[in-house]
Amino acid sequence: MELYFVRHGKTEWNLEGKYQGGHGDSPLLPESLHDISLLAKRLQDTAIDHMYSSPLPRAKTTAETLIKNLNRKIPLTIVRDLREFDLGIMEGRKFSELENEMPEVIYAFRHQPTDYDYDLIRGESFERVAQRTTKAVKQIVAENNAQSNVVIVSHGAALVTMIQSLLGTKIADIRKNGGLSNTSLTHLRYEDGEFKLIKWNETGYLNKKLESSDTI
C-alpha cells in the first residue's frame, strides 16, 4: 500500500508566523490554491483510491481542492484524529512573541520533544499526538486493500510526529528529518506489516524557493 501524506496549503496565520494548532484556523492564501493545482499535476499519474483529511478547515479545503483539481471521483473521509496538536494558549499567538515569553517551551517543541512542557501551555503531548494519529493511520490501512493508494491531508507538527512514529522513531528523534512544508508530499509504503519511507517533504513540483514560514 502506498500512503501519500500532504501538509495543508499555506494559510494567513502561517504567513504571519502564528501558531494555529488543533483549535485555531485561518484561510488558505490565494497562492495556496495554485500550489495545490501543482500538487495535483504531480499526482496526476497516481491512481488514488481514497483521500482522508483532518476536520480543520485548512486541511479539509486542501483535500477538497486537490480532488477538484485531479478531476476524479475520489472518496474523501474526515478523520478527527488527523487534526493538529492542541497547542492550548499558544494558538493564535505569534512565534516571535512566544519565543520571548517562554523560550524553553518553544525550543523544546521545535527541537527537543522530550523536554516539551505541554502542561505549561495547557496543550497536548507528543506522545498523545503520536498515539492518536498512528492509530488513525493504522485504521485507514486496515480499511483499504493491500494494493491501494491513499492520500492523507493533515498538519505540519502532527504529520512529523505521525510519520516518524509510524517509522518507529523515538519521540526524542521526531525532528531528525526536519519539518514539513506547506503543500508538501511525503510518501510511505506499507508492506508486510511495516512502514517504509520513500520520500520526505517533496516540494520540487511547487517550482519556488521556500521561505522560512513555509516549513514547520
From TrEMBL:
<feature type="active site" description="Proton donor/acceptor">
    <location>
        <position position="84"/>
    </location>
</feature>
<dbReference type="InterPro" id="IPR050275">
    <property type="entry name" value="PGM_Phosphatase"/>
</dbReference>
<dbReference type="InterPro" id="IPR029033">
    <property type="entry name" value="His_PPase_superfam"/>
</dbReference>
<feature type="binding site">
    <location>
        <begin position="7"/>
        <end position="14"/>
    </location>
    <ligand>
        <name>substrate</name>
    </ligand>
</feature>
<protein>
    <submittedName>
        <fullName>Phosphoglycerate mutase</fullName>
    </submittedName>
</protein>
<dbReference type="InterPro" id="IPR013078">
    <property type="entry name" value="His_Pase_superF_clade-1"/>
</dbReference>
<feature type="binding site">
    <location>
        <position position="58"/>
    </location>
    <ligand>
        <name>substrate</name>
    </ligand>
</feature>
<dbReference type="GO" id="GO:0005737">
    <property type="term" value="C:cytoplasm"/>
</dbReference>
<dbReference type="GO" id="GO:0016791">
    <property type="term" value="F:phosphatase activity"/>
</dbReference>
<feature type="active site" description="Tele-phosphohistidine intermediate">
    <location>
        <position position="8"/>
    </location>
</feature>
<dbReference type="Pfam" id="PF00300">
    <property type="entry name" value="His_Phos_1"/>
</dbReference>
